[in-house]
Every structure is written in structure tokens, then in C-alpha cells.
Amino acid sequence: MRPNPHGVRYLKLTRRNNRPVFHWLPPHRLRVAGLFRQVTLGSDFEEAIAKATDLNNRVDAYRHRINPPKPVLGPVKPMTVGDLIRQFEASPRFAQYAARTQQEYGWFYRNMETQRYDGKKMLGDMKARKITRQFAYSIYEQCVRKHGLESAKKMTSALRAAFKYGTLKMPGLNANPISGLGIRNLPPRRQRWTDDQLTAFIKKADEMGFPSIGRCALMCMELVQRPGDMLSLRWGALREHDGVWYIHQSKRGVEVWVPPTRRLTRALNSARREAQRKARTRNIAADLICPTVTGKRWNRRNFTYAARQIARAAGIPDDLQLRDLRRTAATEGASAGATPSELMAVGGWQSFATIRPYLVHTSEQAAAFQAKREAYRVHRRVGSR
Predict the structure, then answer these.
(1) Where are the domains positioned within the chain?
(2) How far is 365 from 363, CA to CA, in rounded Å?
(3) CA angle, corner 291, sides to 289 and 294, nearest 5?
(4) Residue 336: closest CA among 358, 357, 320
(5) CA distances from 82 to 14, 27, 112, 162, 385 (A)
(6) How far apart are CA 221 and CA 300, in angstroms?
(7) Cα-Cα end-to-end distance for the chain
(8) Contact at 8 Å (CB) between 154 and 100?
(9) Residues forming beta bridges with residue 186, ordered by sequence position
(10) Which sign does the torsion angle of CA 281, 289, 107, 254 carry?
(11) Cβ neighbours of residue 233 under 8 Å, at least 6 residues apart?
């Protein structure tokens, strides 16, 4: 956060009739949500500071109430779960994971090691060899209650990988207690966006002052990519000579070259002109296409929160997420008759098995099948004459 020149957060100075007037301007998302509004504090500097400080205390109290500070693990003791996790993260085996996987595993570990399970001390402070299979299942159940089935499965998978490494490196840890818990696989997500929903989301994002989030959603749909990769994409990624976007996918490290659709080309041309106007003569090749208002990359948590607020304001259900746009795009392509190889070339999938979830049965595919049958019957009747 940039320091405020007046020494107090959200305190702004304007002038009216050559007189200073101080205002308290809270963050945009708090104003949009109707939680706090701009307040005029008057011309007296000391009084303005006192009022702004009081208002800031109210904001801090609200943030603490909805998101209390998380506990922090103290010094890591030898042979504990925290020690096992640190050894795993520093190992060559962990280094073989993709950068995105390493980052996600790190988030899971920091979350799980500070949790208290069954009313006991933090998981990170417990001896690794004392973790039984029964206790491991209670960890999974608590994760389900707090984070949902999908997140719980990912968190326990991360913990299972660490304990598997521990059985090879840590004395006294002879079995992996996270294995064989009977955790059922979730059915693949089938949620798909409609074109009206995407249009409503983009329009609402513009209205709420988050055009870059609407632009990111459109890019996910039109380029068949994940939100994280679109948030990292810069204007220099456009290969104008070939008319394609070069994208390095963070999850698997795959490189793809994707031509834009006409709808995306129109939207990005408009956004690029606006970015060039603001930058004036500066080259914008290194600038993000979907930045925050300060030009920086969106923090994952802030982006998810803002996107959810936009979706709710647009009347889009909570079970429909921005990551589902990639699936929607892939399914649309399959329904349009794209071959598996064509899908893999655009989406970066590396095997036919990985695109199977996108080859779902749709009404468009059924209609195409029946149309081909009708055309075949006509051809057969004509040929038999």
C-alpha cells in the first residue's frame, strides 16, 4: 500500500474557493458494497485527522470481524508435522512440481499446519509419527466442513504427498497415514456459462468499476484459458504478424499460440487504444492487459472476492465460477465439431484423456448428429433413384 502524504489512510485533500477541504475516501469495493461512503471532514487538518482515524478504526473492526487474523506457527520443532512439511518443500522431489502446484501446496500447508483438530494443538506442532489414520480422517472431515469437498480433497492430497516423502526420509515414520482414507472422487464439474450470463457479467464489471475483471472473463472464454494465466498476460504477448496470442500456461508449463475471435479482437483493440492513450508515448508491451487500478497484477484473493461480488450483482449463481469459462469454451468448440487435436492445440491439453471431460453430451451435439442423419438419408434416397 502506498503511503498517504497526510499520514492517515484514505485521507484526501481538495480545494474549494482556494480553501483546503479534507475528505475520507474508503476503498472502492467497500463503497460499492454500501458498507462505507465518502465523508467530507472539513478544513481543519487536526480535526480531519481525528475523524479519519476513527473511521479507519471502524474499517479495521469490520475487516477483523469478517476475516479475523490467522494463527501463525511458532518455531518449527524437529520431527513434527511442520518440520516434515518444511523438509518436503526444500526437497528435489517438491522442486519437480510445476510452479503453480508448488504455490498451491504452500498455501494448503500454511493453512493446515496452524489448524487445531479435535480440539488438540496445532497440526504443525504435532509429532509426525503420532498422526494415525483415524486422526488423518478427522483432518479431512474438518477440511470438508470448513472449505468444501473439492478444497478438502486438494488439501489432503498435498498432505499425503508430504507424508509420502516423510516415510522415505524421517526416522520412525514407516507408513503414510493419509493414504487409504477412502476419499471419494468428486464428479467432474459440468457448469457452463450462457452467452447472456457472460455479457451480463462484463456489463456489471464495467458498471462497478472493474473493467479488467470483465475483460479477463471474456479472454478466458475466447482464448480457452484459465483466469490466472489471463491475469498475467501482457500486451507484448500478441504476435501481430501471425495474428495469435502467445500464452505460457502456469499450471503445466505448456506454450500455446491462440488466434483471437472477432469478439475478443474488438474488445482488446478498444482496451489497447485506451491503454496507449493513458501511457501516451510509452510502449505498453510490458503492461498487463487485465491489471488493477494501480497497474499491478491482481492478487488471487482480491480478484476472487471482486469477481464474486460482480457475479452476484449480475444475478449469476455462486456455483458458476470464472474458471468454468474455459470448460464452457472447450465444450462449445467440441459442439461446433472441433477435433480432439484442435481442442488440445488451443487449450494446451497434453493427452486425449485430459479433454474427455469437455466432450460432454450437449443438445448442440445431438442436433448435429440428427442433422447428419437427415442429410445421409436424403443422399441415400437420391442415390437409389
Answers:
(1) 11-66, 81-169, 195-331
(2) 5
(3) 135
(4) 358
(5) 52, 37, 10, 10, 80
(6) 19
(7) 80
(8) no
(9) none
(10) negative
(11) 219, 245, 247, 288, 289, 290
Whether residue 163 contacts residue 128, with contact meaning beta carbons closer than 8 Å, is answered with yes
Closest CA to 177 of 138, 143, 140, 136: 136
Which SS3 state, helix, strand or coil, does residue 14 take?
strand
Q: Which residues pair with 238 in a beta bridge?
A: 245
The whole-model pTM stands at 0.63
Up-side HSE of residue 265: CA atoms within 13 Å toward CB? 9
The answer to whether 20 and 12 are in contact (CB under 8 A) is no
Give the Å distances, CA to CA, from 238 to 184, 224, 283, 286, 329.
42, 16, 14, 11, 20
Q: Is 373 exposed, middle or buried (0-12, 13-18, 19+ CB in 10 A)?
A: exposed
Distances (CA, A) of 46 to 16, 93, 367: 18, 58, 72
For residue 258, the cross-strand partners are: 245
What number does CATH give the domain 195-331?
Answer: 1.10.443.10
DSSP notation for 164-230? HHHHHHSTT--S-TTTT--PPPPPPP-----HHHHHHHHHHHHHTT-HHHHHHHHHHHHHT--HHHH
Total residue length of the chain: 385
Q: How is residue 129 annotated by DSSP?
A: G
Question: By C-alpha distance, which of 214, 194, 229, 227 is closest to 328?
Answer: 194
Per residue of the chain (385 residues), what is the pLDDT tens digit?
A: 455 666 788 998 888 888 889 999 998 878 887 888 999 998 888 899 999 999 999 988 888 777 766 677 788 899 999 999 999 999 999 999 888 889 889 989 998 888 887 677 888 999 999 999 999 998 898 888 887 788 888 899 999 999 999 999 999 899 999 988 877 776 667 788 999 999 999 999 999 999 999 999 999 999 999 999 999 999 999 998 888 999 999 887 889 999 999 999 999 999 999 999 888 777 899 999 999 988 899 988 889 889 999 999 999 988 899 999 999 998 888 888 888 888 888 998 888 888 877 776 667 777 777 787 888 788 888 877 6
